[in-house]
Structures are given as structure tokens and as C-alpha cells.
């Protein structure tokens, strides 16, 4: 039966006139995720959308929209308001209700809470939960197109969802081994700081900024007692992290993530490659310049993942450019350190440092200095058996999320998407709670 027939049937039988009417009320409330709210009317708008007029039941009225406490009424607010609900088949659907205001002793004059939507949202809770779930599991365009909302709107919705689901979860409980890192999230060097729990692999905290103040803000939130429980903090080689860690976490060992050490070597190698390429071009050695350019991925990739063609390019480099090949070996040997038992790894690290110091490649000489200065943290990571795979996986995922978050209006929306994906804050699809 077409939907409009149901709608008119519903209207004919009245709202409270019969048991049948009551049953239909429940059907509409169920369809739109209205819970125990009272359905007063259902009609088609001029635009052909289904509008379900509803009101909270008596016990759910006059609640502050922020804290949910019962408060004295203030006024009728701006009259009737609509909330976009999940589509009914092909048709857009809306919930319509009064939006009166109450006077809360704590939050002042605010619009009342409604059981079907989050505060200050123009969408129902089910609609928002579905958007959040899709944002985690589907592409940007699929999410926006299926839900008929702009990607920017998705950003605002998931911020509300995470604020809501985050209130019920204590992400900072039982932290002992954490990783602190930075992610750039837009051109123009804008950064967020993220904290990962090494034991669960979860993202437990994120905030805008990349400085001492941001790290202190995390420890403030964690609180003094929980700071004492932190046994290990891994990070890159930045002082803005190590300073606050030393100050606030007296029982923590600072480790340098293997990921960042190897990244330093990859960058040093790339510098050598660029130098060789530039020199070859300047000297008119076009063939060499071309070869070096073409070998970029072969140099970057881990040898075990090379294709036959890339392995060929690498062996070409070995024969035509000793400097670049030396840089490649330096990178690979540093990576090798993390595959050995602790004692052998430390011995190899020291051999690496003395080789890199004398290698006559300026970028590696610089890296050798940095690594010498950071040696205790690098060794601590090896001795504590800190799994690099997990840090690197979380890091890669957050970077992919940061790319997807292009088009969001704020860093907070990116943080929300990261928490939905990596903090276990993604709500189930509406009606699927198990
Ligand atoms: Zn309140």
C-alpha cells in the first residue's frame, strides 16, 4: 500500500479515538524513533514530506536541554520546530513539535530537551546515529548522498554524537602505557595532538594544538593520581612532549617510537635522493636524473615489499650511484634494529651511529646527532618491547581520517571522526542495540 494511504488512514481513525488509533500512534513513534513521545498528527507537507507532529509525554516535559534537570517553564520559545528524521522509504520525514524554554538555575534560559533529539540539533537522534555510523564505515560521498546532507553537516552531527557518547565512556581509565603524537590536519601547519593507549590501541584523547600547553591540558584532565599510574610514554623526539611528561608523570619512562626514528631515516634518504637528482640535472646527466627520479618508491619501500621492477631499479642505483645506495643502506639498517632482540638491537644501534657520523651524507650526519641525543629513549622503547606496528597503524588511520575530514568546518569535527573510529564511540545503527 502506498505511504500516502497509510497517512490518510491514520488521520481518519483519529489520534486517540480508538485502540486502532493508539496502535498507529505507536507505529509512527516507532518508525521515527520517538520512543515514548506522544504522536498528535501526521501529514504531508507542501513539499511532499511526511511530518509527524509530536510532544514529549508529561514526565519528559520542562527538562533543561543541557543538563536534563526539571526546571520552571520560561516561555514558548520560537514556536513550533522541525527535526529531520530518517527517511521513510523514498520520502523525507520530519518530527514537528513545540520548543518551549525553561529557566535552569545552572544554564539560564534554554530550550527544553526533547526525547528524540540531542540539544541544539535539527536532526533526530536516530538520524544522527546513522550519519555517524556511515561516516565511519562508508565513503564521504556515500554518506552525504544517502543521508541527503552536506559533508560539513556530517561534521557538525558527529561532533554532537561524540560529545554525547563520550560522556558515557571514561576513555582515560586504567592508562599505563600511552603514545603522544601530532597530526597535521590542514594546509598551513595546523595540528592536533593525539594520545593513544598502547594496550588497547584506542585513541583516548585529542585536542587542537601542538605545544607544551596542549600536553599539559591532557595531564590536567587525567588528574594527578592517574598521572602517577603512567608507566611509559612514547613520542617522537620533540621537547614539547618530553618536558611536560618529565614534570607530570614521575613514574613514566619516555620512549621514542620506532616509527618516528625510521621516519627520520626515510626523510634523510629522500634528502640525499633530491641532492643527487639536482646535481645530475645541473651537470646535464639527464639519464641519471631520470633514473634517480624513477627509483623513488624503490628506495622508500621496505625491501620485502619490492616488486621485481623496483628491485631492478634498486640494483641499478647500487651500481650507478654509491652515495644514494649508501643512504639506502643506512635507512635499512636503522629499520633492522627494531627486528632484533634487545641486546643485539642496542649493539647495532651504536654501530649505526658511528657509521652514520662518518658517512659524509649531511642529512644522515645530522640524524646521527639527533639519535645520539635521543639514545636513552630509543633504547627504552627497544627494552620495553613497545610494539611499533600498533602505533604506526593508529598513526596511519588518523592520517587517513585527517584527509577525509577535509571539508569539515573545524578541527573538532576531525577529532570527532577520529574518536568515532578509534575510541569505540561509534553508536550502533538505530534499532540495532544488542
Ligand atoms: Zn541545565
Overview features:
18 helices, binds zinc ion, 12 strands, 434 residues, 17% strand, five-stranded mixed beta sheet, alpha/beta
Report on the structure:
The protein is an alpha/beta fold and 434 residues long. Among the domains are: 3-121, no CATH class; 258-383. It is 51% helix and 17% strand. The protein has 18 helices and twelve strands. It has helices at residues 3-13, 19-31, 125-137, 140-147, 151-167, 212-222, 224-229, 239-248, 258-282, 286-294, 296-300, 308-320, 322-336, 342-357, 362-373, 375-383, 388-404, 411-422; strands at residues 38-44, 50-55, 73-75, 80-88, 91-98, 101-104, 108-111, 177-186, 190-197, 203-208, 232-235, 253-256. The strands form three sheets. The protein has a five-stranded mixed β-sheet with strand order 10-9-8-11-12, sandwiched between helices. The protein has a four-stranded mixed β-sheet with strand order 1-2-5-4. Strands 3-6-7 form a three-stranded antiparallel β-sheet, with no helix packed on it. Helix 8 links the parallel strand 11 (232-235) and strand 12. Helix 3 (125-137) packs antiparallel against helix 4 (140-147) and helix 12 (308-320) crosses helix 13. The two termini are 31 Å apart. 36% of the residues are buried. The mean pLDDT is 88. It binds zinc ion (ZN). Zinc ion binds next to loops.
| Largest sheet entry | 5 strands, mixed
Overall body shape: elongated
| H and E string | HHEEEEEEEHHHEEEHHEHEHHHHHHHHHH
- Which stretches are poorly predicted, pLDDT < 50 over at least 5 residues? none
Total number of helices? 18
**Helix-strand category:** alpha/beta
Overall helicity: 40-55%
Calculate the mean pLDDT score and round it: 88
Compute the gyration radius: what is it? 29 Å
In total, how many beta strands?
12
Strand content: 15-25%
Can you list the ligands bound to this structure?
zinc ion
Order the strands across the largest sheet as they lie in space: 10-9-8-11-12
Give the terminus-to-terminus CA distance: 31 Å
Amino acid at each position: 500500500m502506498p505511504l500516502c494511504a497509510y497517512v490518510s488512514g491514520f488521520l481518519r481513525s483519529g489520534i486517540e479515538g480508538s485502540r486502532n488509533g493508539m496502535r498507529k500512534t505507536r507505529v509512527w513513534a516507532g518508525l521515527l524513533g520517538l520512543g515514548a513521545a506522544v504522536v498528535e498528527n501526521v501529514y504531508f507537507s507542501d513539499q511532499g514530506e511526511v511530518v509527524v507532529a509530536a510532544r514529549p509525554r508529561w514526565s519528559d516535559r520542562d527538562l533543561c536541554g543541557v543538563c536534563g534537570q526539571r526546571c520552571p517553564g520560561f516561555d514558548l520559545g520560537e514556536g513550533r520546530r522541525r527535526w529531520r528524521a530518517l527517511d521513510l522509504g523514498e520520502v523525507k520525514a520530519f518530527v514537528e513539535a513545540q520548543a518551549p524554554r525553561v529557566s535552569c538555575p545552572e544554564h539560564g534560559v534554554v530550550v527544553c530537551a526533547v526525547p528524540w533529539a540531542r540539544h541544539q540539533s535539527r536532526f533526530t537522534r536516530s538520524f544522527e546515529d546513522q550519519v555517524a555510523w556511515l561516516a565511519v564505515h562508508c565513503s564521504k560521498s556515500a554518506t552525504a548522498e544517502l543521508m541527503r546532507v552536506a559533508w560539513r553537516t556530517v561534521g557538525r552531527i558527529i561532533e554532537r554524537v561524540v560529545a554525547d557518547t563520550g560522556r558515557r565512556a571514561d576513555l582515560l581509565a586504567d592508562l599505563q602505557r600511552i603514545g603522544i603524537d601530532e597530526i597535521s590536519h590542514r594546509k598551513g601547519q595546523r595540528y592536533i595532538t593525539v594520545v593513544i593507549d598502547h594496550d588497547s590501541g584506542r585513541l583516548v584523547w585529542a585536542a587542537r594544538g601542538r605545544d607544551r600547553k596542549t600536553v599539559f591540558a591532557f595531564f590536567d584532565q587525567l588528574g594527578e593520581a592517574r598521572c602517577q599510574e603512567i608507566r611509559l610514554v612514547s613520542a617522537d623526539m620533540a621537547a614539547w612532549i618530553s618536558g611536560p611528561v618529565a614534570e607530570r608523570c614521575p613514574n613514566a619512562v619516555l620512549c621514542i617510537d620506532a616509527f618516528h626514528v625510521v621516519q627520520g631515516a626515510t626523510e634523510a634518504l629522500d634528502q640525499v635522493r633530491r641532492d643527487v637528482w639536482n646535481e645530475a640535472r645541473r651537470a646535464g646527466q639527464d639519464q641519471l636524473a631520470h633514473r634517480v627520479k624513477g627509483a623513488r618508491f624503490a628506495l622508500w619501500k621496505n625491501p620485502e615489499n619490492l616488486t621485481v621492477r623496483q628491485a631492478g631499479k634498486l640494483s641499478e642505483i647500487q651500481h650507478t650511484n654509491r652515495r644514494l645506495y649508501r643512504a639506502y643502506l643506512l635507512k635499512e639498517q636503522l629499520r633492522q634494529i627494531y627486528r632484533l632482540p634487545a641486546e643485539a638491537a642496542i649493539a647495532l644501534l651504536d654501530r649505526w651511529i658511528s657509521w652514520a657520523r662518518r658517512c659524509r651524507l649531511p642529512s644522515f650526519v645530522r640524524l646521527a646527532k639527533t639519535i645520539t641525543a635521543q639514545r636513552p629513549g630509543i633504547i627504552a622503547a627497544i627494552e620495553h618491547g613497545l610494539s611499533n606496528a600498533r602505533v604506526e597503524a593508529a598513526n596511519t588511520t588518523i592520517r587517513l581520517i585527517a584527509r577525509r575530514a577535509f571539508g569539515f568546518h573545524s578541527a573538532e569535527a576531525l577529532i570527532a571522526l577520529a574518536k568515532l573510529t578509534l575510541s569505540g564511540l561509534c553508536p550502533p545503527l538505530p534499532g540495532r542495540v544488542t
